[in-house]
Amino acid sequence: MAALLRMVNKKQHARLALLVTPRSVLRRHARLVARKWTYPHPRPGRPPKPEALRKLVLRLARENPGWGYRRIHDELLVLGRKVGASTIWEILQKAGIDPAPQRTNQSWPAFLKAQASAIVATDLFHIDTVFLRRWFVLFFIDHSTRRVHIAGVTRHPTGPWITQQARNYLMDLGGRAESTGFLIRDRGAYFTDSFDAVFQAAGMRVVPTLPAVPRMNAIAERWIGSCRRKATDHILITGERHLRLVISEYAEHYNRHRPHRSLGQRAPDRLTNPDPPIARDNTPLSRRDRLGGLIHEYSQVA
C-alpha cells in the first residue's frame, strides 16, 4: 500500500479515502509476529476432572446427606473408581455443597418417608347391599408400601371379632411385624383394649386418632374413598360373597397394578421389579378386565 501511494501525486493523495490507517496496519502486523513466535504452554496444576466423575460425586452427596467427602471416597473405591479424597473435597466445595454435619437436616419428604416405614393403619367402612343390608369391611394398610390387606367382612363388627382379625393379620405379617412400630386407628367402640393388647404384645404402639380429625388417618381414608369411587359405587352388591369378591378383586388390582405417585408410579407389590422397556409406536399392548370390565389393566406384550 505504501508503494502504491508513491505513484499518486500529492494533490490526488489528499483526496483519497483509505479503508485503514497506518496504525491499524502496524497493529495487525505486530499480532502476526506475536502469533508466529508464541508457543503454547501446558496449563499448570492437575488435569481437569472428568464430568462423569463430578456428576457421580454430586449424586452421592445429594442422596446421602450424612456422607462426608471421605465416606464418598470409600464408596467410590468400592465402585472401582480410584480418585483422591482431596479431589472429592474440591468437587463438593466448588458445587457449594456443605460438609456432612451441615447437610444432615432432613427435608420433610425424607423425614415423613422414613417414619412411614414403621407405620400401619387400620379402619372399618360399610357397604349397603341392594337389599339394604349393611356390611362392614376391616382392612390394614402399610404406610410405606401402600399395600392393603383385607382382614375380613362382617355384619356385626364386635370387639372379639376384630381382635381375632388383628391376630390373623399379625400372623400374615410374620417377621415384618418386628419392623412396624405404630398402628393408627380411630376411636370406634369396636377397637377394644384387647385389640390394642394384640399389637402391644408385638412391640407396637397403638395411636388413636383425635375425635373428628379423619386426616390423622388420611392414608386409610384415602383408600376407602378410592375403593368406593372405583368399585363399590358402580356395583350393586347382593350379599357377603359378592362383597368379598368385589373388595378382594379391587385390593388385588390396587396392590399389583395400580401405579402410585408416592412410589414412583409403581404398584405396592412391584417395588423391586425392573422398569418396563421403553415402548415404541408399534409396541403391542394387552388388556385385562377386572370386575366385569369396570377396571382395565394394560401391559406390554412380551
Helix/strand/pairing class, anyone?
alpha/beta
CATH class term of the largest domain: Alpha Beta
Strand content: 15-25%
The SSE order reads HHHHHHHHEEEHEHEHHEE
Radius of gyration: 36 Å
Q: In the residues, how many domains can be counted?
A: 3
Give the % helix: 40-55%
Proper CATH architecture of the largest domain: 2-Layer Sandwich
Attribute tags:
41% helix; 7 strands; single chain; 302 residues; five-stranded mixed beta sheet; 15% strand; alpha/beta; Nucleotidyltransferase, domain 5
Description:
The chain has helices at 2-6, 10-14, 22-36, 51-63, 69-78, 85-94, 100-103, 108-116, 159-173, 193-201, 218-230, 240-256; strands at 119-128, 134-142, 148-154, 182-185, 205-208, 285-290, 295-300. The strands form two sheets. Strands 3-2-1-4-5 form a five-stranded mixed β-sheet, sandwiched between helices. The N and C termini lie far apart (78 Å). The protein is built from twelve helices and seven strands. Strand 6 and strand 7 (295-300) form a beta hairpin. It folds into three domains: 51-105; 114-268, Nucleotidyltransferase, domain 5, CATH 3.30.420.10; 272-300, no CATH class. It has 302 residues and is an alpha/beta fold. The mean pLDDT is 85. The chain is elongated. Helices cover 41% and strands 15% of the residues.
